[in-house]
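I am hoping you can look over what I have pasted underneath with an eye to the fold:
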Amino acid sequence: MTQTTESPARDARRRTFPAARHRPRIHRAWIVAVVTFVTIIGGAAFNSLPGLLIDPLNTEFGWSRGEIGLAVSIDMALYGLTAPFAAALMERFGIRRVVVVALGAVAAGALASVWMTAAWQLMIYWGLLVGLGTGSMAMAFSATVTNRWFVARRGLVTGILTAAGASGQLVFLPLCAWIVDRHGWRPASVTVALAALAVVPFVWLLMRDHPADVGLAPYGGEYVEKPAPARGAASRTVRVLLDAARTGPFWLLAGTFAICGASTNGLIRTHFVPSAHDHHMPITAAASLLAVIGIFDVIGTIFSGWLTDRFDARRLLAVYYALRGISLLFLPMLLHPTVEPPMVFFIVFYGLDWVATVPPTLALCREQYGEDSAIVFGWVLASHQVGAALVAFLGGVARDYFGSYDVVWYAAGALCAMAALMALVIQRVREPSDSVLR
């Protein structure tokens, strides 16, 4: 009788790849991606509120649009500045712990705002607590999950996870608008708090920090051992920033993404509803239009991820920003008391372009900065939110001063044209022959 013996190398491979003999039909990476998607929806629920509450808070407390815009700008700035540190904290303490604490901060800020009576409290609850919480679940969260769990389909997954924010807007904007219209702004704030808390069990039970935690290789890649927790998260985050800041592509990416934030979160998300209301459009109708942006945002972002896997990311960004700028120049002529077909066309067009910029921007960060790309993208995202914060504040000030938002729309259109030119001059790292369909 012949006895078959396995080589030491094969035996070592079996010990190294414990899950290779029982591959699940659905790779665990897709389950983690779904949990990430749902988490971002829950955390993004708060982003539906600011544009809806500017008029109610102005009416109830007499706070100017500039004061309310300042609170929103603090939230957006902290959202961005927290992101790079959150990426490093996830490497140190794990994704689950950081995200659960972040969801708790969002819920606490939204719930505490129910009892506020002064503008400084709005800045603490909306600005500080919610800003820190949502920043810890920002796009750097998506980048960390994508980099750890996926090798293949990274562009597509980035697009899907980026679309989660728009999906949250799609779900919560009409709901919160209806609640504000029928029951006031406080029940809407409570609804947001409950949405954040409802996601916590899914994160704790289903999220895993690394494929090695369940004995798997990343989707489309080779098995790698889980790295030891990275200490000195804050110092590493600053060090990565200092290294990246010595390179030209970082400043171009940060500049274009700042304009992206200014023309989306800072402008449309914060000021579109009150601007439409200035033209006597009902708040619920304006909020429904923003929700429609969310529908097409999902489509546009996923399609942009697909395109990013195939075409030059710089050229994609240039096209996205140029088209966005042109559409903003026409917006003041489209605002009427009723929703006309040209406005519907603008909403569909802007929705497709809303955060289509994220997959190519993240791809360029990955190409330029390799293993540090998640943290670098966190800093680029910080510039996105700083741009959004400035326009959220200055847009309110401009409305108080000029009596309309027209000058803001025109200025944002010009900035988008500048971003298109900046994207084209970003230098590539790899040779053109390394890419597909360039």
About this structure: The chain has a mean pLDDT of 80. Residues 14 and 20 are 8 Å apart (CA to CA). The chain has 18 helices and no strands.
